[in-house]
Amino acid sequence: MKIAACLAAACALAGRPPRRRTSVGTKRRPTTKAPLVAPPTFVAATICRAQETNEDAFSPLAVPERCRGAEAATRPWFKHVGLDTLFPGAGLGEVFDESSEFRAALRRAAREDRCDTSSPVRFDMTSSAQGSWFSRRPAAATHGVLREALGASAPTGDEFYAKIGGLTLDGVAPRTGHFIDIVGGPGSRRLARYAWHQDRGGDTEAVTVMLGFPAASRQRGCGVFSHVSPLSHLVVHEADAERDNSRPREFSDERGERRFLDVDAIPEASIVRPGYGRGRELIVYSDARVVHSAPDAIHRESLWRFM
């Protein structure tokens, strides 16, 4: 009782109400009756719609002189391609944009026709699966999906993969035959950290093509394609003579590569977020002349990559 009386007296002198005793200590009385406000919900779709693509602002990442190639870049080294441009008169762009059922069927068919038959996740649509886009297996399942949706104007399944994999940038096309249906990203609760890298370790003959599968029909904006940062020059280093170009160049401490190109703080002006939309379903880029990363906010069903 004496302790409680002393506490009340001290609070009175301080001009404030006494604290209420609880089983775990004292608790200050709330000073307002306003309800507590929850933190804003992370909504990737909203964030991606608000992001700037930076596609027209060519501000390449400066490559330090210690690892700089001789020729300076004069353009971004990536481009968009539309399905209707690649397959004129087939009506593919419209059905791809409008029908989630068609896009889902096309992904399943690709896994049947072009992904490794021994893969345990070949038909698990929630996991990434890979194979070869110029496999010798006839793309019968893909042809069936295209024919059902497009009728007589549909390309064959084999033509479909050959056309996409044959896209060029300065006359250079994907050449390894590697194909992957990349899944992952939806459901994220925060912005992801960038992981900038090159898939072919600076191989100047390496070109990558990506076909985006949006999260919803008639989707427009960022969050589907990988983000890219054009480089001011090719990255060259004395270690390249011993490098296997089939390995990624990840610019990580573990491989000692960060010492010649720091990608931890790429300026906002140098980050390009290729926008997705009707007529912009594909991108093509030079692996050696950019670094790329998964988007910081992902809003897509999946992403096909042809190398």
Topology:
Blueprint: H1 2-14, E1 20-22, E2 25-27, H2 44-50, E3 68-72, E4 78-81, H3 83-86, H4 92-98, H5 100-114, E5 129-132, H6 140-150, H7 157-165, E6 178-182, E7 207-214, E8 227-230, E9 233-235, E10 282-286, E11 290-293, E12 300-306
Antiparallel strand pairs: 1-2, 3-9, 4-10, 5-6, 6-12, 7-10, 7-12, 8-11
Helix pairs in contact: 5-6
How is this structure best summarized?
The protein is of the alpha+beta class. Helix content is 21%, strand content 18%.
Spatial shape:
globular
SSE order in H/E notation?
HEEHEEHHHEHHEEEEEEE
Biggest sheet: strands, sense, closure?
Answer: 6 strands, antiparallel
Question: What is the CA-based Rg, rounded?
Answer: 26 Å
Strand order of the largest sheet: 4-10-7-12-6-5
Structure report:
- With 307 residues, the protein is α+β, with helices and mostly antiparallel strands.
- It has a single domain (53-306), classed as Sandwich (Jelly Rolls).
- It is 21% helix and 18% strand.
- It contains 7 helices and 12 strands.
List keywords for this structure.
six-stranded antiparallel beta sheet, 7 helices, single chain, Jelly Rolls, 307 residues
